[in-house]
Amino acid sequence: VIMSDAAVEQRRALIKKKREIRKETQLCTAEEPTLTLEQESIICELLQAQKDHFDLSFSGSKAFRPMNRKSEHICSSTPLSSPKDESQDKGVTTSLNQLSCPCLGDKEDQMQYRSKPTVFSMLPHIADLSTYMIQQIINFAKVLSFFKGLMIEDQISLLKGATFEICQIRFNMLFNDKKGTWECGPLTYHMDDAAHAGFQQHLLDPLQKFHYTLRSLKLHDVEYVLMQAISLFSPDRPGITHHEIIDKYQEMFAMILKSYINTKRSSSDHSLLFPKIIACLTELRTMNEEYTRQVLQIQDIQPDVTPLMMEVFSNNPE
């Protein structure tokens, strides 16, 4: 049977339409994206490390030096730490010293500063809070299999570089964006507390904006902990010697984060979430240097910054 040209064209169109329908059906019935077993295992390790080394109840806050929110308060010198706090500081410092971190100067240098008056009323308390967070971050990193395999010098450099950033990521998990406060177990903080500890507005303003921005993303715990891992394994920190292996780890954590978002978030949620998270990490990085500068400036005025804080921030190369 010889078909007319019109019939041939009609048949071709019908075949083409059937192929398109079959292709669409295959796409619709395709399996949803899933995380690999290795990726799931890494996520479990990170979550367990955070569970073990992030005290959401802030049970250790009883040892903090008391709050004093009177900005005009000036008093006679208080010791760098009370006998109770001193043992706490010693334990915290030991955690970092186990990574062969250089110690503070001798006790005579510390005693020389203790004679200065207190002008930043919240500094002693905020210093103890920061030290408590730093201790937990050190312990968090030290149980990660990828971190344990690194050279000790690189471990120290990674911790020094990432401590401020990981602290802020963790604090964001406690941030109440309706009240503008951080709810840390029995303690509640607001941005004025940081100002009363000596920190200046050109750090505090972008930091507050960061917390509102990150909190608005409504991240899952997995996304928060992967942010911490990406920050920790930054190959361009000062003092890093094995850049390639650390860069490989950071890329791996970034890909797990992207896969998790694609897998666990709806299509309307995940299209821009990953770049927004990366933008928040970049913003944190820009604040890191200014934070270190202000910590050292505060310490020169009022030496209530704890030994562990000084170990972390005083030796960062310019």
UniProtKB/TrEMBL annotation:
This is Nuclear receptor subfamily 1, group I, member 2. It comes from Lepisosteus oculatus. InterPro entries: NHR-like_dom_sf, Nucl_hrmn_rcpt_lig-bd, Nuclear_hormone_rcpt_NR1, Nuclear_hrmn_rcpt. PROSITE patterns: NR_LBD. GO terms for biological process: cell differentiation; intracellular receptor signaling pathway; negative regulation of transcription by RNA polymerase II; positive regulation of transcription by RNA polymerase II; response to toxic substance; transcription by RNA polymerase II. One of its GO terms (molecular function) is nuclear receptor activity. GO terms for cellular component: nucleus. The keyword Iron-sulfur does not apply. Residues 38-317 form the NR LBD domain. It holds the Pfam family Hormone_recep. Residues 71-92 are annotated as: Disordered. PANTHER family: NUCLEAR HORMONE RECEPTOR, NUCLEAR RECEPTOR SUBFAMILY 1 GROUP I MEMBER 2. Keywords: DNA-binding, Metal-binding, Nucleus, Receptor, Transcription, Transcription regulation, Zinc, Zinc-finger.
